[in-house]
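Practice problem 4.
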């Protein structure tokens, strides 16, 4: 009857919490939308279906009611435990009609957040934390009678006290807390609360083994505004704590001790952890690098510090100075039982895999830290972090420049959901497509922009954005576009229109190819929206010689270039930069296709050869048919490797391997190569001893140093598919 009245346009009775909760548990988004005051446009209840970007709602949704302490207003909260950086609590005010008025999380209701000061005491045995927050804020204009802050619903507020004395009336429903401050009083409160950490993808985060607040919303958030903070963590004497910013003190407190940190850079996402870590600190280039772990050896931790220093110094020189005295890698037992890794701007938390070189999480110091992102509109900072990771791999000053650049082109792969929304409107609320767009398409688009304006120009633009972004301003794709236009002196709105503001990917094939009078031309035949395409063009001649040039296809899709000799074949985008909805699987021969998961044979006399390369089933003897096998050893001990090394271009003499004039010592370096066998089959050979495995990228052959860094590589260009034309 209730919904019949709604459909007839009659005034319904007051909304029943039990009715709403039943629909929420059924995830009946259409019926819930009928309860809204405004039933057009985006439906906030769609989050119940999409599950956010990181499985919001996987622990169940519940419906709570909040009534203002004064009785003035009534609110409905749709609640679920969430991981940080995702969407969660949905807030609605109940209108006089009984319908629901949605209040977006971005609406701070006129409150500007200034600073937090926390004191945290863990109770590992109970899996709980007791927290106190001195929150300072101010009204941005006219004061309201009430406002809200948010935190995970696993935390419960016990009391809120004004700094001048007196309790502040409040009410909590799920993770939403409503306050009614006294008229004219400053927004200066002491908030006492406690609870546990429980969120999707993780199990128990506070335990006798480790206490991890990172990756949860454990602190009061107002409109996802950035803020600075101080924090004190009281922990057992045998434990060490880590929080963002700089450590300022470490003092005894009975049987415990209190470690205090100050975060001077305003950020949206806060993190802190504590546990019985061992810590190794290295001084490199005037800066401290630390690794904290319960399981790593001191030597491995020192290696991790060296790897982190290379990344942080690279970004610091190209983007903006690193703003802290120390960078720390936290090897977390909790994260090993949860999701992979998480940035915290002065440190990153990992769930294993160390030592290893990660250039993504450190990049967030600049993209998400110095320029903030709230994840509500887009995951642009994940785009920049993934692009920075690729940029580091391609431009680091180690190895052969051209071969490194070719091997580490960011793969333009159409990920699931990548066409569901434009980059400019791809916040966590759209669901699992948000990471595909943020981590995937956005990084591909920045790589295309680098091709368009050049490597030096894009780093100048990134530097300028960091230099001019107002403090506490949440960044956006539009902000970066304005900076790019200013730095280049060009209007690149067409680029951002087609790649950032337009939904989907281009769909095109190669057509109308011809060569005449020393001119080569062709057309990109689009299905659907047309794009301006700046691309590489591989031109191959009958004698096997090839060259790569740049071409521009305008709105008509036509491109041309000088070519004195008749080609045998051409390929548009031979290195796979351009994402397309009709892209075929990459036909190139790559180590990633033939190394991982394949059976391997290991020289029994040298079981420590490439000790990390154990990805498939071990072969007890070398098979007669080598197809699909990974053979690890040296020609001296595995004679069958001699012709394979020769085919790869490797000359091996004792502990030395030489490839195209580069010689490596196989006691501290390594080599991998895909070797062609008869009938289109392949095997992989591996030689050497290295501490860390390499990132082989797109290569089919790689020489790498002890830390897995690329020294030489061979990467094929694409020569088949619907962007290739072979002349008759």
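Answer key:
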């Amino acid at each position: 009857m209730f919904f019949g009245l709604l459909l007839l346009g009659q005034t319904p009775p007051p909304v029943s919490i039990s009715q709403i909760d039943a629909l929420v548990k059924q995830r009946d988004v259409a019926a819930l939308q009928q309860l809204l005051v405004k039933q057009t446009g985006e439906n906030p209840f769609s989050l119940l279906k999409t599950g956010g970007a990181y499985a919001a709602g996987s622990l169940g949704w519940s419906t709570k009611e909040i009534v203002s302490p004064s009785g003035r207003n009534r609110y409905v909260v749709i609640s679920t435990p969430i991981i940080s950086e995702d969407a969660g609590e949905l807030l609605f005010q109940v209108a006089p009609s009984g319908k629901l008025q949605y209040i977006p999380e971005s609406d701070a209701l006129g409150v500007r957040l200034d600073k937090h000061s926390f004191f945290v005491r863990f109770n590992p045995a109970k899996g709980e934390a007791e927290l106190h927050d001195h929150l300072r804020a101010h009204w941005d204009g006219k004061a309201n009678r009430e406002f809200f802050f948010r935190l995970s619903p696993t935390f419960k507020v016990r009391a809120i006290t004004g700094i001048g004395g007196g309790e502040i009336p409040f009410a909590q429903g799920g993770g939403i807390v409503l306050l009614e401050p006294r008229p004219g009083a400053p927004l200066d409160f002491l908030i006492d609360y406690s609870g546990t950490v429980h969120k999707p993808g993780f199990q128990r985060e506070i335990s006798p083994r480790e206490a991890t607040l990172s990756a949860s919303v454990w602190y009061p958030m107002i409109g996802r505004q950035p803020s600075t903070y101080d924090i004190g963590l009281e922990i057992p004497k045998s434990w060490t704590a880590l929080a963002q910013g700089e450590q300022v003190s470490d003092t005894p407190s009975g049987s415990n001790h209190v470690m205090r940190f100050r975060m001077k850079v305003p950020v949206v996402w806060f993190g802190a952890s504590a546990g019985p870590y061992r810590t190794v600190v290295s001084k490199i280039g005037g800066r401290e690098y630390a690794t904290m772990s319960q399981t790593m050896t001191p030597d491995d931790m020192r290696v991790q510090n060296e790897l982190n220093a290379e990344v942080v110094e690279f970004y610091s020189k190209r983007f903006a100075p690193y703003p802290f005295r120390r960078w720390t890698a936290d090897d977390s037992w909790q994260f090993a039982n949860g999701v992979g890794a998480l940035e915290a701007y002065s440190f990153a938390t990992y769930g294993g895999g160390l030592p290893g070189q990660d250039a993504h999480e450190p990049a967030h110091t600049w993209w998400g830290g110095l320029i903030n992102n709230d994840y509500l509109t887009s995951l642009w900072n994940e785009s920049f972090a993934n692009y920075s990771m690729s940029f580091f791999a391609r431009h680091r000053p180690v190895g052969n420049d051209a071969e490194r650049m070719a091997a580490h082109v960011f793969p333009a792969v159409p990920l699931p959901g990548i066409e569901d929304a434009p980059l400019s409107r791809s916040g966590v609320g759209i669901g699992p497509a948000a990471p595909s767009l943020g981590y995937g398409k956005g990084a591909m688009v920045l790589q295309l922009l680098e091709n368009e304006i050049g490597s030096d120009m894009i780093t100048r633009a990134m530097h300028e954005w960091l230099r001019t972004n107002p403090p506490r301003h949440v960044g956006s794709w539009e902000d970066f576009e304005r900076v790019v236009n200013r730095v280049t002196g060009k209007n690149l709105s067409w680029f951002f229109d087609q790649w950032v503001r337009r939904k989907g990917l281009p769909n095109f094939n190669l057509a109308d190819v011809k060569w005449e009078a020393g001119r080569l031309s062709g057309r990109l035949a689009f299905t659907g929206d047309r794009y301006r395409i700046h691309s590489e063009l591989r031109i191959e001649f009958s004698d096997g010689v090839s060259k790569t040039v740049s071409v521009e296809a305008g709105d008509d899709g036509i491109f041309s270039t000088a070519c004195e000799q008749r080609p045998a074949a051409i390929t548009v985008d031979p290195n796979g930069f351009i994402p397309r909805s009709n892209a075929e699987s990459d036909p190139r021969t790559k180590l990633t296709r033939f190394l991982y998961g394949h059976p391997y044979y290991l020289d029994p006399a040298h079981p420590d050869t490439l000790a990390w390369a154990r990805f498939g089933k071990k072969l007890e003897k070398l098979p007669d048919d080598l197809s699909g096998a990974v053979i690890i050893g040296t020609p001296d001990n595995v004679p069958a490797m001699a012709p394979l090394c020769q085919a790869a271009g490797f000359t091996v003499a004792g502990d030395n391997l030489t490839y195209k004039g580069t010689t490596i010592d196989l006691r501290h370096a390594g080599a991998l190569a895909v070797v062609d066998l008869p009938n289109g089959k392949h095997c992989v050979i591996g030689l050497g001893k290295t501490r860390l495995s390499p990132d082989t990228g797109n290569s089919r052959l790689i020489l790498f140093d002890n830390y897995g860094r690329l020294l030489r590589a061979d990467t094929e260009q694409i020569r088949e598919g619907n962007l290739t034309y072979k002349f008759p």
